[in-house]
Design brief:
Blueprint lengths: L3 E2 L10 H7 L14 H20 L7 E4 L2 H13 L6 E4 L4 H10 L1 E4 L9 H8 L5 E3 L13 H10 L4 E4 L11 H4 L3 E5 L10 E5 L25 H37 L4 E3 L10 E7 L3 H10 L2 E2 L1 E2 L1 E4 L2 E4 L1 H6 L5 E7 L6 H15 L14
Parallel strand pairs: 1-11, 3-4, 3-5, 5-6, 6-7
Antiparallel strand pairs: 2-8, 7-8, 9-10, 10-15, 12-15, 13-14
Helix pairs in contact: 1-8, 2-8, 3-4, 5-6, 8-11
The structure holds pyridoxal-5'-phosphate.
The site of pyridoxal-5'-phosphate has 13 residues, from α3.
Length: 376
Amino acid sequence: MTPVFLDHNATTPLDARVLEAMAPWFGAPANPSSAHRFGRAAREAVERARAQVATLVNARPGEVVFTSGGTESNNLAIVGLTGARAARVVVSVTEHPAVIEPARRAGAREVPVDADGKVDAAAFAEALGNGAAIASVMWANNETGVIQDVAALARLSAEAGVPFHTDAVQAVGKIPVDFRASGARLLSLSAHKLYGPQGIGALVFDRTLTLEPPLLGGGQQGGVRGGTESVALIVGFGAAAELAQVSRDDRTRHALLLRERLEKGLAALGPVTVIAQTAARLPNTTLFSVVGVEGETLLVALDGAGFAVSSGSACASGRREPSHVLQAMGVGQGEGVIRVSTGQATKESDIDFFINALERLLSPGGGLVGGAVGGW
Ligand SMILES: Cc1ncc(COP(=O)(O)O)c(C=O)c1O
């Protein structure tokens, strides 16, 4: 059986149409800063892609700065606004490390979440206090799929005079993301989560803000992000953004159908609990825990059975522990946790085969249940 990829929150396969759009730019002498015809053609291609990305999130092209991906976009937002000086950066405890780590370097105030992973709005408002440099809460969580009330948090930030950033890397392409309507002043995205290439992303930001660029160089992209633009990757990002724009509703419908099928199948298995099941979640994401089985062990067994998924544990100093996200939600202790994230090519039969494989592995003869759950 062909292996089934159910890990689209980690990365997505490149869409063949995106590769086709990129192909002419690989190897072309295309520096968008050059004044000659080759440079002009490259510049046009980059500006077209900038408009495609802007359209996807309802921003202006001039608000889009291309980066090397979600990690750099998050760093650019936080380091850009704090200038790498000590400053208060308000974040949720469930942020991706690409937000938490730069926030901690400046001076993070980490706001708790409830059992569903939703940010405690009162604690968030209090943490903003006087003079935070930036607040950052992700649009949707990569592990749980839980969607935050970004507009409400952006409003609280605006009232406190604090620029609000959102890491929308997991949300864009899966659910509607409207930069303008959200009230966020900075927003990060990454192409490889929406069938574009790896190594390219963008920070969308309100140009009335002044960012201190962490990379000093040739003044490209208005001086905010120096370095010769990768035309092929940018063109790929633009093409992926346009495809996401036109097919988003179909993708959402398809993902919801698969999620319902998956979660019905899981419910029938018995010792399985879907985490944050009743919270607003990304349509393609299901995180579930299984009592009595270690997550990594289950992941390896599923891999052997032909299914690529993720586990919700982090291996810290030899001990397997629930991830920081699960710990913040108070779940996953003593349980194996598996994340299934579907994509545009996932079929209903893939879900049925997955449930069958899981049922087999969790049955008394499957070799997993009843074993030690080491270190949990
Ligand atoms: C929520 C979130 N933010 C940021 C990133 C980092 O993005 P990139 O891999 O493009 O650096 C990821 C990737 O896993 C993510 O899920």
